[in-house]
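INFO  loader      accepted 1 record
INFO  loader      residues=383
INFO  predictor   begin
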Amino acid sequence: MTSQRTLNRLFVLHSWAGIVTGLLMFIVCFSGAVVVFKNEIDLWANPSLAQLPRSATPAPLDAVLTQLHTRYPGATVETIALPDAVNPSYFAFVRERGAPASTRTKVALRSDTGAVVGPVDSQLGQYLRMLHVFLFFGPRWIVGFLGAAMLVLIVTGIVIHRKILAELFTQRWGRSFRVVMSDLHKSAGIWGLFFHILIATTGAWMGLAPLFEQGYKYVTTSSIEAAAPKPARKAAGDAAEPVRMQSLDALHATAQQAVPGLEARYVSMRRWGTDTAEASFTGNLDGHLASTARVDTNAATGVPKKVHDPRTAGFWSLVNGLMEPLHFGDFGGLALKWLYFFLGMTPAFLSISGTLIWLDARQQRRREAEAAQASAGGMAAAG
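INFO  predictor   done
INFO  writer      dumping tokens
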């Protein structure tokens, strides 16, 4: 049985954790609820793209790459996104010659011929995702910390409000503003409890796990790297010599052989045209929820360099591969997205209602203190 003193401390922790993180929590939760429709939003913001034909057999990747090099000579093609169930087109991220490394142009291409349609006018869906995942410019661990704070709010809320079943159906509409908001706050938290735990856990994992992983790798590999001899640098003349690249479609087939069932969503190209060029294929697995399958290939030789299949890479790798689909709900079609949207709005409401309850309680205490002071002053004057 939890003592009243402990309950009071947990209530203070619950209140201040909500107040301190309230604004950021609202931004992250609201944008997260909307961003489940990221691809649909991008198509809505670019109606001409939605009218492009959908091909049952998309054009070869080599044709897409050739079209890009023809349209943007001298530019660096960094990533190609393949058509999927929502997007009927290819998309490519291109960095033109002389442009900063952070400046990329998103280009749309027809899926049936690979012909370049042109730059994408609006990336509203991507901006919303950047807001949700990185708060535009912040590191991802900040959002991971908010996920951990959300778990603290959930746990303390469960302990404080022990009569969950009774409060599940309690709504006293005729009472004061604070009572009405408190009932709404508790019932919304209880109805969406399991979803909130899922979102908070997956969000905290995706934001904080890479931080701990990087720290672990730094501690365990820094001494080894310091002792290892550094490879000799190549002469400038050698670096300038062009190297024949393997076919992207052949590399794609190699990746699918390395990871059976790989449904590549993105092809990333690095150092293209050199003997160290790489083509990385990332995506989902056919009939599996995990979304972190990846194959890195040497684009000059066609040999796989690194293969990551979450089904065979160990328990924690499989858990990590499940986090993003569970967090964004992009595995069950449009119906699941709408469910995630409505349930995802409840944490945003909880952050607002919790703040309003705290402000109203603070104002009520101030009024009571002023009334007590006035009463004490009146008694002193009467005496």
